[in-house]
Amino acid sequence: MAETITQAPETVNLTIDGKKVTVPKGTLLITAAFQAGADVPYFCHHPRLKPAGACRMCLVRIEKMAKLQTACTVPVSEGMVVDTLSPEVKQAQQGILEFLLINHPLDCPICDRGGECPLQNMTFQYGPGVTRFIDEKRHFPKPVPLNDYVSIDRERCIQCSRCTRFQAEIAGDGALAIESRGNSAVIAPFSLDGFQSHFSGNTVELCPVGALLSRPYRFQSRPWEFHSTDSVCSMCGVGCNIAVQTRTNQLMRVNSRLNEDVNEEWTCDTGKFEQYWVNSEERITTPMIRRASVLKPCSWDEALTAVAEAFSSAAKSSSNTVAGIGSTRTSNEEAYLFQRIFRTALGSNNIDHRMHDFPIRPMETSLAAIGEAKAIVAIGFDPKQYLPVVWLRIYKAISNGNATYAHVSSVDDPAVEAALAVGEGAILLTDDHIASADLDKLTKRAKSAGAKINVLLPDNNSWGAILMGVLPDRLPSLQPVGNGARPKFEALWGGPVPDKPGLATWDILKAGAAGDIRALYVLGSNPVASFPDRDLAASALEKIPFVVVQDLFLSESAQYANVFLPASSFIEKAGTFTNIEGRVQPFGAAIRPVGDSKPDWQILSELYARLGASAPFFGPADIAREIAHSADKNTFAGDRR
Amino acid sequence: MSEQPQILFKYRNVENYNNIDVYMKHEGYAAARKALQMEPDAVIEEIKASGLRGRGGAGFPTHIKWNGIPKNWDKPHYLVINADEGEPGTAKDRELMNKMPHLLVEGCIIAARAIRSNRCYIYIRGEYMEPGQSVRKAIQEAYDKGFLGKNIQGSGFDLDIHVHMGAGSYECGEESALMSSLMGERGMPRHKPPSAPLPVISGVWDSPTIVNNVETVATAAPILNMGGAAYGKIGSGRSLGTKLFTVSGHVNKPANYEFVLGTPIREILETAGGPLNGKPLKFFIPGGSSTPLFPATDKFLDLPLDYETMMANGSMLGSGGLMFFDEGVSVPALMTRLMHFYAHESCGKCTPCREGTNWLTKIHDRIMAGGGRHEDIDLLLDICNNIGGRSFCALGDAAAMPIQGALKYFRHEYEALIPDRSLSSRIYAPLPVAAG
Amino acid sequence: MSLWDDIKALAEEVKAPLTGLSITDSYSRQPRVTIQYPDVRRPLSRRARWRHVLNRYENGLEKCIGCSLCAGACPANAIYVKAAENTAENRVSPGERYAEQYEINMIRCIFCGYCEEACPTQAIQLKDIYELADDERKDLIYTKEMMLTPAPEEE
């Protein structure tokens, strides 16, 4: 009984179905069984959640033990002999499945999980073929919405507690709980205001039956009908790996995709449920040109020719009279092409993407390292709201490593001091709104303490726009326009590149309002709505004689456009995004461009041809190849920084 | 009829025995004083000599449990008293706590001393308002007399006892679910070996914890008073000492009685006044509703009531809730009531218990309503087999065992309830049951 | 050559077509195998698999629940189903789900009947409606409205 502390071996040898396996000490038996090639069915087990042993589906026979044991809870021990195939085990599995099915409604044909449902699969593989249950099944009102994104069908629930464990152990909010007990136990939101979590969508993917369901996806498609494309989330700078699932050229669903370094297997609700704007009816899908002060549909040729003429005549008079405002949401290829057109065809450095000035600084640690930190302080922003998946890393550090965490508004907060006292292993997180004086102060203190600072940028390709040179004073790879890197780019691009820094966004808008800009290219951004001084932005766009807006929607800025170029969303094109830690991640085209819209790179490439490019780019891969040539390894390495 | 030594119930009839002054006049707190002067291991030795086994149902030797607490471990140790007496047919702990709460408090001091614990929790069943108040009052009196708190009686030993009232769940009488509930979590069982260490290594708040039944701990005081060896002379074999039995049902004097382990059931029945109104008995349940029943034949009435004999005959001593039923009782009706109880009390964590108890209930309801089919009886047995040994904790087994017992001896009563022209059996095919 | 010979020759010449005509005549007395389509229609086998019909329950609710199993079973990929949710105001089928759009591309369909096999509610049935010819491709995409049996109140 008394535990003797012995020097434990690092690995354990055991026999599963007559096959010898060696696994690290502490491994759960089910993991070892998978390694041995044994097929153990399960519902409540999940490698990232703590063992529950609730569903009892993974019962196996372990020699010298009186009862069948659940493989998902038992840690392996030396010399264990396990049988997963005996008739006794098979009969137990059948018995458990029969129990699970007595109250499970047989509405698979209309269930959104039908076709990708673990319970369905297990029943086919292990279940009894017929039911012996002739009594009335359990009934609940259904489906009950839990929040804007998730609804629950309680009749289908098998109480595996994956969702409640996810919310408690991974999301850290305990937003779901089990209410009541026994056969009337139901999953319910802990809070009276419903399922309050930024991560509720993950429970839909975790649910082994069709109990927790996505509301936007409800009845949209069956799993065998859509096409799944590997993509990268466009909603924030974390760059979660997602699978975009599409049918009839429309987005049906967003699921997470495994990437241990970025999002593990999670997404936030914004990424999973807030990307249906790509299906919006309000998208503009034909080019438009202003005639008699009204935007009228026109052909692509008409629109692009008008843009090319306006810009080349303005640039001919003075290259200072043209300007471009790029975006943090276009792909690397598009950002690169945009600045190349301005710098070579128009000879101007008046190109920027920032809406306010912020310190440009790469993250000092990887995202994964946040999960292993000892002390974390978020200064001036709430990671849960702003970059939700970063919060999952923070909570991992809190729950696994007992890290301290504080979310404060000022760099002078005592919590910052307390974190710095931890020294090595302390990570300070801040966003792009930190004053550079504060950041300098913080840097000095962090350096002496051995702590790391991560400045987290908000948008999905903020860091890509910076590295691709959509800045008035920097060429790609953060090379200053004035120094020795310029000749290299001049040779690559086949023309002179201006050596004086151009105008930043705020200077472009000031010059525009003063009447000094003759042609402005707004690519994917919306200065009238997102520039802090909206009046300045509006009066500048009003004053500038020729404004071209390239976007998906008729934005506030598009009200001032002379030409509107309809672009395609990120799921309609291929490309790469660079996330906050500088990781370049590719995404594929899931659907055809909607209507007459075109991907940004294609619009830019066609415009470039009209502005006299020697050879146009025929695809994002063409552009990526050139970026790989021009950039140093640190900016476009493909994977880790 | 042999003379039964009264150990726990020695002063049962003393007026105001729940008052500390009266209690101290009757050997009260002498054992605690003795224990405080002994080395902790010596206390355990004394218990070992007495052969005391857990009185909650499982019958695990108490000294082994107490010895399991790691010595010289800097984590706090906890003593948790399981006073969540929820087993239908059992009310012994209620009387102990109501009438002789100081016996429990004194037992806690001894047990805490033995396992070097400075904190004790008494988890009392939510419905036990009166025993709860009684124990609280006794604890307060003990504090006032200096038997609890810091530096008890100048021994340098500290002990605080807290009373925690449950919220009305049978499941929380299971020791690991009790610990969950005590910590403020959902009253659901926790992992046990081989999935997790025993509570003596990692119990409440991941610290070494001993969970003992009220009666087990209360017995510690008389054992120290009379000496472990003397206590060990009572009874025979491995079932030593006396035990409280709650005798209920169709007897003339239903009450709690103290008997030496191994007393024949017939003697207990006679002590309790024999069958009610002399009506012949039909069957009895030896250890609370979770244990399989026995027919009231001479063969079973002559069995000695102890851990081993009950086990050997396919039932259990359990918590000592002895229930007698006369010929007016229908076994299927009783089982239907029991199944409603277990389905209601299943915590819902694991599949076999949650769904199985519910299914058993539905089949029983249907049979009682005249909708039974002949195959339902085998189906009941098969469901019991599918629950037994596969549920997370013992509640599933507890629900399955009574039915297995009932069908073993009273299958004909079920069959009598099934109409001749029952539903077609074609819609159901039995699960292939694995050989061996 | 005598006259008799001439008469015999003539008789031979007359006989040959008469012999032929007598065969024709004998066949004309046999029962006819052709029918006067489209005025007359041949009865079809009870199991004939022609155009699909979407059935209703007696109370007028559609049997189709929009589960797409027919589309999944279709080897020619000829079926498109778009489902939607029943509401209290707009109840189309029993339960939660109904087919908002249901289309079968009759050019692709090979009339194998797998859709009928797959259907969990016996909503789709291949019946004996075989006049499917058309001269416009897009008209051969049959919509739900075209295949649905008339609702009782519409009769």
Give a description of the structure.
The complex is a heterotrimer of chains A (641), B (436) and C (155). In chain A, 29% of the residues lie in helices and 19% in strands. Chain B has 436 residues and is an alpha/beta fold. Helices cover 42% and strands 13% of the residues of chain B. Chain B has 17 helices and 13 strands. The longest helix of chain B is centred in the C-terminal third of the chain and has 24 residues, at 394-417. Chain C has helices spanning 3-29, 69-73, 114-118, 144-147, and strands at residues 52-54, 79-85, 97-105, 124-126, 141-142. Chain C has a domain at 52-154: Alpha-Beta Plaits (2-Layer Sandwich). Chain C is an alpha+beta fold. At the A-B interface, strand 4 and helix 2 of A face helix 4, helix 14, helix 15 and helix 16 of B.
Layout of secondary structure:
The complex is a heterotrimer of chains A (641), B (436) and C (155).
Chain A: E1 11-16, E2 19-24, H1 29-35, E3 59-62, E4 69-70, E5 81-83, H2 87-102, H3 118-126, E6 144-145, E7 150-152, H4 162-170, E8 176-179, E9 186-189, H5 200-206, E10 212-214, E11 227-232, E12 241-247, E13 250-256, H6 269-273, E14 288-291, E15 294-297, H7 300-317, E16 322-325, H8 332-345, E17 351-352, H9 367-370, E18 375-379, H10 383-386, H11 388-401, E19 404-408, H12 414-422, E20 426-431, H13 436-449, E21 452-456, H14 462-467, E22 474-475, E23 479-480, H15 486-493, H16 505-513, E24 519-523, H17 527-530, H18 534-543, E25 546-551, E26 563-566, E27 575-578, E28 584-587, H19 600-610, H20 620-630
Helix pairs in contact in A: 4-5, 7-19, 8-19, 8-20, 16-18
Chain B: H1 20-25, H2 30-37, H3 40-50, H4 62-67, E1 78-83, H5 92-99, H6 101-115, E2 119-124, H7 129-144, E3 160-165, H8 175-182, E4 209-213, H9 214-226, H10 228-232, E5 235-236, E6 239-240, E7 242-249, E8 255-260, E9 263-264, H11 265-271, E10 281-285, E11 294-295, H12 298-301, E12 304-305, H13 307-312, E13 321-326, H14 331-345, H15 351-368, H16 375-387, H17 394-417
Helix pairs in contact in B: 2-6, 2-9, 3-6, 5-6, 5-7, 6-7, 6-9, 14-15, 14-17, 15-16, 15-17, 16-17
Chain C: H1 3-29, E1 52-54, H2 69-73, E2 79-85, E3 97-105, H3 114-118, E4 124-126, E5 141-142, H4 144-147
Antiparallel strand pairs in C: 1-4, 2-3, 3-5
List the keywords.
heterotrimer; A: 641 residues; alpha/beta; Ubiquitin-like (UB roll); Alpha-Beta Plaits; Rossmann fold; 4 domains; seven-stranded mixed beta sheet; five-stranded mixed beta sheet; 28 strands; globular; C: 155 residues; alpha+beta; two-stranded antiparallel sheet; 4 helices; rod-shaped
